[in-house]
Queue: 2 jobs
Job 1
Amino acid sequence: MDKFAQMPLLTPPARRTAPQLFQDLAHGLTQMATLTSLIAALMGGGFAAEAAGATAKAHKAAKNKSVKKVHDKAPQAFGERADLMQFADEFAAQQQWDEASRLRLREQLAQARSTPIVQRLIMPAAAGQAKDWQAYRARFVEPRRLQAGLKFWEQNADALARAEARFGVPAELIAGLIGVETFYGQITGGFRVIDALATLSFDFPTGRSDRSPFFRNELAEFFKLCHREALNPAEIKGSFAGAMGWPQFMPGSWNRYAIDFDGDGRVDLIHNPADAIGSVANYLAQQGWLPGLPTHFSLRMPADTQARAALLTPDIKPSFSIPQLQALGAVPSEAALDHPGPLAVIELQNGTAAPSYWLGTDNFYALTRYNWSSYYAFAVIDLGRALAELRKAAQQSAPAR
Ligand SMILES: [Ca+2]
């Protein structure tokens, strides 16, 4: 109950009644206009205005961007560069591949392309921009993604329910996560993974901390994956960093955490949403997800500057007990008082407005192992919660048989 006290996500239905609106949904009328009015009614007028404003802003930003568009140089094949060929020979030896496989790997790496846009995208975002949670959230909790999410949940209800039962990860969070990652499989990345990973392994840009050892390891994991699943490395696409498929798993995460969840004997995160659902739940379970534990609670921060700084120092790693929080002047919500585990104080900046603060549990921390950002974790939580509320309302209003 207290979870969204500071961020009302779903205000009670206004004007038209939810049952009328949801009958449309229950009967499969999912045209954009219907759903948009449905969502707008559910969320109160403010949401629709906010969403429209955000869309307009996004268009404006995109327009501004196109004015000062960066022209990246065209990708260039690496060819038989010594460092890549050495990598191929060492990897083939380590995997005890035969000569034909070793030569094929050398050829594949020689045809990989060093890609300037990948080098640009791996650089940190320009500093000095205030983070704005509301703007961030509006990119994800918006009518089109909600519509896609409801359809996804409907089509994969069985897999979501099985994943929740087996791993204890709520279906709404799995649905929220896949929605934030790839808009339900619609945006999975257009880079050849071999180009992205080879660029970041062998032509990592200067000007930021060198992460090429990480990407060389991911490149090796990618070849293991392709070999095992009989995939052609040249054909697999993903993000600029090499993340793949519905859940955007890096190759190493795919090899460690992905599972066959529809029982067809293959692990396919690129075409198979059921495998993606099971794999996301398994990933979170392996990161220490505790079934039944909420992701966060609300709190009131102390006014004292030093106390606030002390509360924020450990960042998203849960490390405070309730008495420790209280000793620093923080006031945890009623619901948080019974929580036995450690808590983190999470700050979400709201541009020029005052920040929002939350208490994150070990489960909030597990979500941030997927993507190291509180904003990301809250977007997953909020999108999932909105989907769950919409589904519940639809089910309640469905005509009795
Ligand atoms: Ca499968």
Job 2
Amino acid sequence: MKYITTFIFLFSLSISFAQTSHTVTVANFTFTPQTATINVGDTVKWNNVQGTHNVRADDFSFFSGAVAPAPWEFIHVFTAEGNNPYYCEPHGGPGGSGMSGVIVVQTPVSVEEETIVDEFKLEQNYPNPFNPSTRISYSVPSASFINLKVYDILGNEVVVLVNEEKQVGSYEIDFDAAELTGGVYFYQLTTNSFVDTKKMILMK
Ligand SMILES: [Cu+2]
């Protein structure tokens, strides 16, 4: 007896890179939040609401300009991974001293989803043993031409139960063996990518 089992998997890979804008509030000699963690491509807006300040990266990769009284906004887009320490020139210094902050830029985490679509399945008939009829169930994961036949113990074809295109779904079919002699029979489900055979016993 030959069993071939084919599983069909559908892998859907979705990666989202949502660009987000983050705000750092500048007030009371403090940047809030002091450490902001963002994704590559995100924007940070410093919003000075109180006092006279500026924003300058330790490495000078971004700079709001000369110290100026509130209100003002400064926007910078971060396009590379890494830590970006910065400070306010009159009230802080490089390396995190005084009025300072850090923008931590990360690569967005990709979201990977795996969906397993149902597989072809041929169930054991019920009841089994049986007399004179039994029910055979099978599942179709994608529209397919389905062939379901019954054979006797010698491999002779006894009856064709299904021989047609079926849509996705679960199916049942009754096999009536009133005309047959008792003994072992096989039923086989065949598609272009799947074959399975099971044994059933007609008790008379
Ligand atoms: Cu300041």
